[in-house]
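Revision sheet: structure tokens.
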Amino acid sequence: MTSPAPDDAGRNLHPGHATETNHAETNAEVIQVTEADPGFVDLGYARLDTDRLTRTGDPEVVYGAGKTPDQVVDLLRHLHTAHPDRAALATRLDATALDRVRAAFPDARLDEVAGTATLGPPPTPVGLVCVLAAGTSDARVAREAVRTVEAYGAGVRTITDVGVAGVHRLLAAKEEFDDADCLIVVAGMEGALPSVVGGLTGVPLVAVPTSVGYGASFGGLAALLGMLNSCAPGVVVCNIDNGFGAGVFAARVARRAHAGRGSAAAGTPNGAAR
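Predicted:
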């Protein structure tokens, strides 16, 4: 009978033993994969995406509409635990939710006009976004955009009440927005402001229609269609009242505009490249 060949460690293995060893190694790999961080936290009512910061450079944000105040607090707590060095942002919070967040996190930064809460340190600002609002009635959407830009790591400047009904006010502010890396232009009514701004500057521009206006504005639909039909080139449009979406877009444009110019180019807290 031929003796089994020794392995590298001097052990004698029959063919069957080798098969068992392979199964054991395979099982160990399966266990390792199963026990690895899945990239989310299952809270029962939600699966919080804790891997988004790694994938995109920015953590998940809590959309507060339709959630209970307790859920908002719970989600903010888990986001802050997962990414203690980055701001956790919650949007579309009503007064009850804001009060609950204030009681749970005394250090949170609340904006009652925007309906936002920010917990934890914002990234070091990179680049500049300028938010232009046609009227003071557009303040909630404009401020949501501002708080989002801050949480997403860009500097921000705000210019308010420069609607086309008094276009001289916009022309007087041209120097304030002409040096920005990206513009967010917020307007209701007929939504003409982004077209005018787009004709005055070549700065990348994202327009946000608001639901401000009389009956024929159809809750912002008239402004949305006006912006989509802009004759000024380079105008892109977000959904009605979506200051958050515009803020994300503009902050990423501003950060990318400065990529490679300095250590803080990527918008991460330490400026490391993603």
